[in-house]
Amino acid sequence: MSDAVIKPPHGSPSAPLVTKQRTLAADVWRQFRQHRGGVVGAIVFLTIVFLVIFGPYLHGINPAALDVRSRNLGISFAHPMGTDNLGRDMFAQVLAGGRTSLSVGITAMMLSLLLGTTIGVVAGYFKRLDGPLMRLTDLFLALPLLPLLLVIIMLFRDVLRARFGPETGIFLLIVFVIGITSWMQTARIVRGAVLSVKEQEFVLAAKSIGTRERRIVTRHILPNVLSPIMVSATLGIATAIITESALSFLGLGFPSDFPTWGRLLYDGVNFMTINPSRVIWPGLAISLTVLSINYVGDGLRDALDPRIRGR
Amino acid sequence: MSVELAEHPINQPASPAPLVRVEDLLMHFPVYKGILRRQIGAVKAVDGLTFDIRKGETLGLVGESGCGKSTTGRALLRLYRATGGRILFEGKDIAALDGEPLRRMRPRMQMIFQDPQASLNPRMTVGSIIAEPLIEHGVYKGEARKAKVRELLDAVGLNPDYVNRYPHEFSGGQRQRIGIARALALDPDFIVCDEPIAALDVSIQAQVVNLLKDLQKKLGLTYLFISHDLSMVKHIADRVAVMYLGKMVELADVATLFAVPKHPYTKALLSAVPVPDPQVEATRKRIILKGDIPDPANPPVGCKFCTRCPEAIERCFVEEPVWREVDPGRHVACHRV
């Protein structure tokens, strides 16, 4: 007990700061680089994003251009992924489809994450709202999704198309529909995590300091339920891409001449025996995206946890 | 204990000004059951406490697990809403305060928690943990705040360069010091120490207790020191209150209470403290209580201690003893005193 007893009198200036101030971003980045899976995932994901954004400028074939003389071709220099039954270039279609699929996936995931996290945190933190909000969640889980989607799209498709143009309108509609039908899992998981975090003593300590409820939630609760949120975010992108493709398959999504990964996959199913590459390429794109995002999420989650960081 | 501190000369029994006065404090937690979630009863965690805490003193609060010690401390700080009674802080009733007026009272009274691991947010750096009260009450800004955080770390015996570290990088004793620094940040008058040493090993316990004593001397703090470690309470407290099943059974200054306990429960409790002399220890007669502490949702009629009391008489099973002052500054609740 001799190490701590000699202290300067209260109020005396302490020694000046010698160590450099560490920033959270630098710490997180340093730890993220240690996570091999995360780095590989990030590289793959950024490559996909880069290709999808700039690819059409490098590979200058119009994805909608028909060429009946070169149908169902295999891999060649002119057509790196072959062609489909109408002679359209698959590589150009996958690139164009990626733009839609990725933006739908990411936007819908963000919307469902925002909804799910908000509802989960509010339900977990405010006891009075727990019952009503969780019953609402159960209600949404119990809804038959496909008929609901049909009704929503039938009701609003034309209104939105008229308002924002055919592509933006349907984009907004699909993002909204996917967002509001996929937040329930996140809400449940986040609520559970909040329930356990809010009983911890540091929350009580914050209360005894006089921290406002809003700040308790943002400063103490949210950062501590980050892991389940990250996991459901990465899974959410995958679900959103797949739901979008299901909608397109039913003819409720984007117009049939507008390629998305899901659409390409479903169009290719009938030709799988003749030309398996039509299923393989868009399928590979979806899988690679989902897998790489999962790894990035894994790496980020570890990097954001100070207990794992620096180990 | 190489650096034993001199006995501090704070407690004059005549000093009349209580910093905190508790009058008939009740803290009941309702019990709901059935499909309709109807209230079928209440756990009477704290059931009618009346006591004072004088300015600058340390009031030790002892009792076995589940007797309502921590609940009392938390109710005093308004972390719970008291079911009944008054809590006067410098004459102002804070039991009924809410919202912003209560928030403005918060800096005056702080808490040190039992588990230093759980009471620090694992995702915040030590600097931001200690700065949180300063930010919330807007007392220091920018560079002044940083300087204050470093000064606080210094005051509790930690290296001020640790501001950027995370709680898991510290040992238990160091974490408890961080908790103490946070409690001190707003220059409080009153600190509830909720078993601050129970989670620490013995060598560290002494450090932390002496740090608390040091700070009290320097800053004129008032402590409510909750503990079940009687020897530690003897070391730090000026007066000691003994609780049993939500009730206070005895309150006296530390020398009197340890020398001549009056309540049978206090006697039993004190007889459990080992004597550091093997010859005395071998022949010492211990009072061993039988049975368990009764369910606080369904306490016995009459004196709460009657089911386990070795001295109980018929009256104890019928009539609840009143909390009365038997000698000046000495309160007991027992029919046989």
TrEMBL record, chain A:
Its main location: membrane. It is found in: Cell membrane. GO terms for cellular component: plasma membrane. Keywords: Cell membrane, Membrane, Transmembrane, Transmembrane helix, Transport. Pfam families: BPD_transp_1, OppC_N. It comes from the Bacteria. One of its GO terms (biological process) is transmembrane transport. The chain crosses the membrane at residues 39-58, 104-126, 138-156, 168-190, 221-242, 279-297. Residues 98-297 form the ABC transmembrane type-1 domain. It is a multi-pass membrane protein. SUPFAM superfamilies: MetI-like (SSF161098). InterPro entries: BP-dependent_transpt_permease, MetI-like, MetI-like_sf, OppC_N. Gene3D superfamilies: MetI-like. Belongs to the binding-protein-dependent transport system permease family. PANTHER family: ABC TRANSPORTER, OLIGOPEPTIDE TRANSPORT SYSTEM PERMEASE PROTEIN APPC. This is ABC transporter permease. It comes from Neoaquamicrobium microcysteis.
TrEMBL record, chain B:
It is found in: Cell inner membrane. Keywords: ATP-binding, Nucleotide-binding, Transport. CDD domains: ABC_NikE_OppD_transporters. It holds the Pfam family oligo_HPY. GO terms for cellular component: plasma membrane. Residues 20-270 form the ABC transporter domain. It is a peripheral membrane protein. GO terms for molecular function: ATP binding; ATP hydrolysis activity. One of its GO terms (biological process) is transmembrane transport. InterPro entries: AAA+_ATPase, ABC_transp_ATP-bind, ABC_transporter-like_ATP-bd, ABC_transporter-like_CS, Oligopep_ABC_C, P-loop_NTPase. Belongs to the ABC transporter superfamily. This is ATP-binding cassette domain-containing protein. It comes from Neoaquamicrobium microcysteis.
